[in-house]
Amino acid sequence: MNKIVMSVIAVVMTACGPANPTETVDELVANPARIKEIQRQCKEDRAKIGDELCMRAAAAAERRFFGDRPEQKKAP
Questions:
Q1: What is the pLDDT of residue 51?
Q2: DSSP state at residue 68
Q3: 22, 26, 29, 32 alpha-carbon torsion, rounded to 10°
Q4: CA 69 to each of CA 26, 63, 64, 66, 72: distance values in angstroms, whole numbers, following the listed order
Q5: InterPro entries recorded for this chain (predicted)?
Q6: Buried b (16+ CB within 10 A) or exposed e, 34-46
Q7: Mean pLDDT, consecutive 10-residue segments, the chain of 76 residues?
Q8: pLDDT computed for residue 73 by the predictor
Q9: Rounded distance, CA 34 to CA 27, Å?
Q10: Cα–Cα distance between 53 and 56 in angstroms, integer?
Q11: Quick check: 46 and 11 in contact, CB under 8 A?
């Protein structure tokens, strides 16, 4: 009985934790509307959305803007 109660408590506490962002940068690159939505939410309440998802949206927007161009070397 004690093990069941402890298991239930562990499951409930795990469910209450913050959700990890599941969207990858590649998935966001393919969905520009989602990038804009996340960026809007980040401006309104970054603490609620989380830094990780905001950073992924920024990286996806950057990748969409610049593309996958190779880096150019600067002359010394």
A1: 93
A2: S
A3: -20
A4: 16, 9, 11, 7, 9
A5: Eex_IncN-like
A6: ebeebbebbeeee
A7: 67 57 88 95 92 94 82 59
A8: 60
A9: 9
A10: 5
A11: no
Q: How far apart are CA 27 and CA 35, in angstroms?
A: 10
54 contacts 23 by C-beta, under 8 angstroms = no
- Which residue's entry shows tokens 């509307």? 33
Two tokens, residue 1: 């009985």
Residue 56 burial (CB < 10 Å; 0-12/13-18/19+)?
buried
Residue recorded with tokens 């980040």: 42
Residue type, 53: L
